[in-house]
Amino acid sequence: MNNQESQQLPESRLSELTLLYQFSNTMLSTIRLNKLIHLILTAITTSSSNLFERAFLFLRNEKSNVLQGMLAVNRQYSGDLEIVGTSDVLESRWDIGDEIIARQRSTELCLKVRLTRVEIDSGCPLVKQIINDRSLCHSDASQCLKCTACNFIRPLCNGSFAAVPLVSRDNTIGMIVVDNPDSRREISSNHIHFLQLFANQAGMAIENSILYNRIQDANLSLKDARERLLHGERLAAIGEMAANVAHELKNPLITIGGFAGRLLKMTPDGTQEHNYAGTIVSEVGRLEKMLAEILAFSSKPSSCFTLCNLEEIIKDCFSNCATTFEDHNIKTSLTVDLPSIAVLGDAHQLKQVFLNLILNSCDAMPEGGDLNITVEKNDTDKRTVIITVLDSGGGIPKDMLPQIFNPFFTTKTHGTGLGLAIVNRIVINHFGSIDAKNGDKGTIFTITLPLVEHKVPHHQL
Length: 461
Ligand SMILES: Nc1ncnc2c1ncn2[C@@H]1O[C@H](COP(=O)(O)OP(=O)(O)O)[C@@H](O)[C@H]1O
Ligand SMILES: [Mg+2]
What we know:
It is built from 14 helices and 15 strands. It is of the alpha+beta class. The protein binds adenosine-5'-diphosphate and magnesium ion.
């Protein structure tokens, strides 16, 4: 623009153009959506621009198809925009302090606007005109204030107002409403025209800011996913290493255990040598058990699903643990509601489940106690069976309950913390679930497994 032309422009036109120019500079350097909307409304309500006395901004939520109130600013709270950058007015941009933002946000009017939500398809003629038809609206023309169905704009402004769409590319992303409630001054067509130009830029700026935030969110979740993947890979590598080490240790351990067993038999009872050999035998047994658990946890389970009779599996476990029950003075009981209950599963893995639970209960009752297992049909879901393992071992401290199924969580000096992790994995592989809680005297583990639908003849189980 040369000097001669600028002299021909009226003062007000020049200041509007400057405002638009400064706004586009501002837009390029403001990415935070929150700040941007404060800048937009402050620019058009501030006394230096002398355009409107009050402004409201609504954004469209595409998912819910609702117009949502974001901000309202009136001149009293708009303050003056800080001009930052160079002294050249065309290269400068605006800024707004956090204090003013907080002040604008806390006004009663702003709180009211932020609670406003209008469904775009609600039939409101104003919303239709702005959002769907994308044309500006001057309240005198639209008869909006007379609309009896209105519960949207009338509670906010009770005089004449103007509204323009916020458009970005082919999308209407919201709208700006302005009015002059203090002076009751009519909104001039020049000002409305300026508002439309301004809203076009504002729409693009808001859309850019939303896109930028979306990219940033996507970036963060990508980074998070990458870290989790790396962590998972690292854990998998550690698991593989543990499995290899466990495998390598197994053979020499069997040899050591074998020779220690021979020494035990060769040395007379009561001698020191006999006691040493005894210690080696029992420690080797403990290590073998630990290695077996590590191998069971780290190897990929290969399941062989057949029809399994739960009663037989549990009885089998009881007979395997008979000496432990005797040694620990533990009384056991097994109650089976329906003897022909059958689940489709891997018998070996299901046995592992009950053995682990039974041995944990034994560990919890070193001075003796009761262990009761029940198998019954689920009354609430007839397609499943519920197995409860109940002991009188004092239970699990409440704060530990959420952790007991985590691998390596143990409270025992010689525990691996893998028993319940293995149990959990097997139950999940059988499309079931497991839960632990404290009863009156001890812990209750409840396992739910899907039942085989049809009745299975006994000889097939
Ligand atoms: N029946 C139970 N009574 C009390 N605590 C239990 C019982 N079963 C499991 N726990 C607790 O859960 C922890 C984890 O069990 P588990 O995964 O089998 O590992 P580990 O037996 O090697 O410690 C145990 O260390 C114990 O603290
Ligand atoms: Mg255990």
